[in-house]
C-alpha cells in the first residue's frame, strides 16, 4: 500500500552533471533555495558524491550513509582516485536501497548532486543504472554545467558541446546545458553563450584553427548541428541567482513536454 502511494507522487528528477570544479553542488543548493522561495515547493536533495566533505544543503538521501571515500582510503590503503572508484563500486551494491529511499520522497522536485569527478557517474555503470532505475518512478532529466574557465578556445567550446551530447547519449535522458559562474564577467560569458548556441559563429571561429584539429572540429560541428539538442543555454550564477528563473522555466517545460527545447 505504501509503495502505491509513493508511486502516485509525481517526481521531477533533475540530475546535475559537470566536470570537477564547475559548481554542481553550489548550483544544486541555489536552485533548490530558489524553487522553495519562488515556487513554494520544497525540493528533495540527493548527494551521490562519496568524497564530499561538506554540502550546502541537507541531503534527504546521501551516498555517504553507505560509503565515504575518506574511510575507504584508510581501510583499503588506496589513493584518492582509487578510493573514489572503489566507493562507487561499494555504492553499486546498495543502489536498490538508495533508489528506494529517493522514490519514497514526496517532494515534487528531486535535485541530484553527482560526484565531483564526472566520469564516476557518467562513464561507470553506477550512473547508467541509477538513471534507469529512477526512470521507473518518473521523468529524469539532466543539467550539464559548462564552466567558462574551461573554454578559452573555440575547440574548448566544441568539447563542452560534445560532453553534453555524450551525457545525453550515455544516460538516455534529455539535458539542459547551462553556463555557470555568471558572476565572473558578462562579456566573456555572452560570447561563450553565442558560440554554444550558434553553430555558424562557432564554425567561423573554428576555421581559424590550423591543421587536422581545425578540420575535425568543423566536421564535428556539422554532426552536432544535424542532431542538436536544446539550443537555449542560460547563463546562471549560484552566487547571485542570476538566470535561475530561466533555468527553472526550462526544467518545467522539459518535464511538461518531455523534450524539445529547440
What topology does this entry show?
Layout: H1 2-8, E1 12-17, H2 24-39, E2 44-47, E3 61-62, H3 69-76, H4 80-92, H5 95-104, E4 109-113, H6 118-122, H7 125-134, E5 140-146, H8 154-171, E6 174-179, H9 186-197, H10 199-206, H11 211-226, H12 244-257
Parallel strand pairs: 1-4, 1-5, 2-3, 2-4, 5-6
Helix pairs in contact: 3-4, 5-7, 8-11, 9-10, 10-11
Pfam families: ATP_bind_1 (PF03029)
Domain AAA+ ATPase: 10-177
Family: Belongs to the GPN-loop GTPase family.
Describe this structure as you would to a colleague.
- By secondary structure, the protein is α/β, with parallel strands linked by helices.
- Helices cover 52% and strands 11% of the residues.
- The chain has a domain at 11-148 and 172-184 and 231-257: P-loop containing nucleotide triphosphate hydrolases (Rossmann fold, 3-Layer(aba) Sandwich).
- The protein is built from twelve helices and six strands.
- It is globular and about 50 Å long.
- The N and C termini lie far apart (41 Å).
CATH-level-2 architecture of the domain at 11-148 and 172-184 and 231-257: 3-Layer(aba) Sandwich
Strand content: 5-15%
CATH superfamily of the domain at 11-148 and 172-184 and 231-257: P-loop containing nucleotide triphosphate hydrolases
At CATH level 3, the topology of the domain at 11-148 and 172-184 and 231-257 is: Rossmann fold
Termini separation comes to: 41 Å
Strand order of the largest sheet: 3-2-4-1-5-6
Mean pLDDT: 86
**Shape, per Cα inertia axes:** globular
Q: Helical element count? A: 12
Element-level helix/strand string: HEHEEHHHEHHEHEHHHH
Largest sheet, strands/sense/barrel: 6 strands, parallel
Number of extended strands: 6
CATH class of the domain at 11-148 and 172-184 and 231-257: Alpha Beta
SSE class: alpha/beta
Radius of gyration of CA atoms, rounded to a whole number: 19 Å
InterPro entries: AAA+_ATPase, Gpn, P-loop_NTPase
GO molecular function: GTP binding; GTPase activity
Keywords: GTP-binding, Hydrolase, Nucleotide-binding
Protein name: AAA+ ATPase domain-containing protein
Amino acid at each position: 500500500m505504501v509503495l502505491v502511494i509513493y508511486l502516485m507522487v509525481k517526481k521531477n528528477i533533475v540530475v546535475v552533471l559537470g566536470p570537477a570544479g564547475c559548481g554542481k553542488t553550489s548550483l544544486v543548493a541555489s536552485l533548490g533555495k530558489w524553487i522553495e522561495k519562488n515556487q513554494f515547493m520544497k525540493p528533495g536533495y540527493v548527494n551521490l558524491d562519496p568524497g564530499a566533505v561538506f554540502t550546502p544543503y541537507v541531503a534527504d538521501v546521501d551516498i555517504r550513509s553507505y560509503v565515504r571515500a575518506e574511510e575507504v582510503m584508510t581501510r583499503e590503503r588506496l589513493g584518492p582516485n582509487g578510493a573514489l572508484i572503489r566507493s562507487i563500486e561499494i555504492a553499486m551494491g546498495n543502489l536498490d536501497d538508495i533508489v528506494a529511499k529517493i522514490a519514497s520522497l514526496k517532494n515534487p522536485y528531486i535535485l541530484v548532486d553527482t560526484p565531483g569527478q564526472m566520469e564516476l557517474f557518467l562513464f561507470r555503470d553506477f550512473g547508467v543504472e541509477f538513471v534507469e532505475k529512477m526512470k521507473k518512478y518518473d521523468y529524469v532529466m539532466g543539467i550539464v554545467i559548462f564552466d567558462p574557465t574551461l573554454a578559452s578556445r573555440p575547440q574548448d567550446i566544441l568539447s563542452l558541446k560534445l560532453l553534453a551530447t555524450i551525457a545525453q547519449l550515455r544516460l538516455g535522458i534529455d539535458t539542459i546545458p547551462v553556463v555557470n559562474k555568471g558572476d565572473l564577467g558578462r562579456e566573456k560569458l555572452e560570447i561563450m553563450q553565442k558560440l554554444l548556441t550558434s553553430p555558424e559563429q562557432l564554425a567561423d571561429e573554428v576555421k581559424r584553427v590550423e591543421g587536422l584539429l581545425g578540420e575535425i572540429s568543423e566536421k564535428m560541428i556539422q554532426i552536432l548541428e544535424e542532431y542538436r539538442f536544446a539550443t537555449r543555454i542560460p547563463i546562471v550564477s549560484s552566487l547571485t541567482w542570476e538566470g535561475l528563473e530561466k533555468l527553472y522555466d526550462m526544467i518545467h517545460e522539459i518535464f511538461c513536454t518531455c523534450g524539445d527545447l529547440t
